[in-house]
Amino acid sequence: MSTSEELLPGTRRALLHRLAVGQAQGRAPSLVGAVVRGGRTVWCDSRSMLDAHRPDGDVQYRIGSITKSFVAVLVMRLVDEGVVGLDDALERHLPCTVAGHVTVRQLLSHTSGLASETPVPWWERTPGSLRPAVADILSESPAKHDPGSRFHYSNPGFALLGALVERVRGAGWYEVLRAEVLAPLGMDRTTVLPEAPHAGGFAVHPWADVMLPEPLEDTGVMGPAGQLWSTVADLGRFAVFLTGGDERVLSGAALAAMRTPATAPENAEWTSGYGLGLQVKRDGDRSLFGHGGSMPGFVAGLWICEADDVAAIVLANATSGVPVSSLAAELIGLVAELEPRIPEPWRPLETVPEPELLALTGPWYWGAAPFALRLRAERGLELVPLGLSGRAARFRAEPDGTWTGLDGYYAGETLCVVRGADGLVSHLDIGSFVLTRGPYAPGEVVPGGVDDAGWRV
Predict the structure, then answer these.
(1) Which residues are 154's β-sheet partners?
(2) Which residue numbers delimit the DUF7586 domain (predicted)?
(3) What CATH number was assigned to the domain covering residues 9-338?
């Protein structure tokens, strides 16, 4: 069953050992893991309480809240199309709910202030027929916090987003997901209900080695919060998409927005956050994004380290006791440390840049702070601080001769090349910040001017 020939034997042994420890210590009936690198799955293995029935990469497990990331992709597709705005109120697209005042962005980022769960009974262990309509998933007063004031995880919030997709598309959310995301990505083993072969879900007694089957309910309108079933093979394909993108499904800018924290951390030593349908977290010095999930009988984790080009998926059929997200992060760390990413070879640009563009490169100064401006592919620019501090940023070339910031402080800001009356480049302007070829020179273009006496000791 192994697809691990691209990893060294020592790495494969370390991965299997960590998986085996996770299954034994977590007392999971079964546990399956996979690692993705270079755009495909390079390792997959499993452990089970039954040696003759070890699951492979095609066995379905319930993935719980990883479902939310799929729903978020559907919503961001609507945003890409201009049909829905992130700051639109929900009632603009889904009228007649008690949460119509919250925005699409707030729902995606769990900052809507809505309740974490539905009114009783608990939706995860009861049939969706108990909540047949969207109106049944929220109480008459569902707000727990002011919208936008803080992060507060809301399962009904994602059920509302699924209903929004259905209203706009005129079809069920899973039907839309299958047509617009799963089919293009080749994910034919990700379904709304289990399809054989699939694992059964169990609870393991906390003080004895005995098990109890968990109910496998169809949660109905709450499905967008955690209904999906999938495999490590399919989730590996999803990880490749979340890492490298696929313009058939979603723009690169939308994917970047999904994994950008939407709210400020609550303390300086932050270890986790939430973007738009994706979780972000720190694992030591490593930054990860992805999502965890749980439903009765199952836990799931899909995590990606873009810098190391490694993703890991871990699925188990136990309600609790198996820290799958931490385990996935450890698998990433093992591969990154035992087989560090080999950088792509340096290659020159595909076309020779025009002299005027090449002349913009080199040292620039914001006041007295030195920077270097470097030319990248497709006429892109990169600003790099040369001192001990300063704001780095990449810029995308625009048809009008300006550049747009892609990250950091200058994200979305415009970089303009300003020329003097003689047609020569005078300075750069980035959102009113002036960069000159010398420190505080020429004085006439520096905001506030420069002291006439000049530099002194």
Answers:
(1) none
(2) 354-437
(3) 3.40.710.10
- The residue assigned the tokens 């999906």 is 228
First-to-last CA distance in the chain? 73
Quote the CA–CA distance of 298 and 296 in Å, as a whole number: 6
pLDDT digits (tens, 9 = 90+) for 130-171: 999 999 999 988 999 999 999 999 999 999 999 999 999 999
Q: Do domains 9-338 and 355-445 have the same CATH topology?
A: no
In DSSP terms, which residues pair with 32 in a beta bridge?
Answer: 46, 315
CA distance 432 to 410: 11
Query: What span, in angstroms and rounded, lies between the C-alpha atoms of 446 and 436?
Result: 8
Q: Are 252 and 76 in contact (CB under 8 A)?
A: no
Token pair, residue 446, equals 């520096």
The two structure tokens encoding residue 253: 């800018």
Name the CA radius of gyration of the chain, rounded. Answer: 25
**Closest of 419, 451, 450, 415 to residue 433, by C-alpha:** 415
- Looking at residue 267, its pLDDT comes to 58
Phi/psi at 304 (nearest 5 deg)?
A: -135, 135
What value, to the nearest 5°, has the Cα angle with vertex 368 and ends 440 and 371?
110
Name the token pair of 300: 């799931």
Whether 266 shows a pLDDT value over 70: the answer reads: no
Mean pLDDT (whole number) for 82-86: 98
Residue 54: band (very low, low, confident or very high) from pLDDT cuts 50, 70, 90? confident
Looking at the DSSP assignment, which residues form a beta bridge with residue 46?
A: 32
307 near 7, Cβ under 8 Å?
A: no
CATH of 355-445, one of 2.60.40, 2.40.128, 1.20.1260, 2.30.30: 2.40.128
Distance, in Å, from the CA atom of 148 to the CA atom of 263, rounded to the nearest integer, reads 9
Residues 384-433 pLDDT 10s: 999 999 999 999 999 999 999 988 899 899 999 999 999 999 999 999 99
Yes or no: say if 313 and 236 are a contact pair by the CB < 8 Å rule. yes
Dist. CA 32–CA 44, nearest whole Å: 7
Which sequence spans correspond to the domains of the chain? 9-338, 355-445
Do 78 and 84 form a contact (C-beta atoms < 8 A)? Answer: yes
Sign, CA dihedral 20-25-31-37, equals negative
The percentage of residues in the chain with a pLDDT greater than 90, rounded to a whole number, is 89
**SS3 track for 145-186:** CCCCCCCCCCHHHHHHHHHHHHHHHCCCHHHHHHHHHHHHHC
Secondary structure letter of residue 285 according to DSSP: T
Residues constituting the chain: 457
* pTM passes above 0.85: yes
Cα 37 → chain centroid: 17
Residue 2 has pLDDT above 50, yes or no: no
CB 435 within 8 A of CB 426: no
In one-letter notation, the amino acid at residue 396 is: R
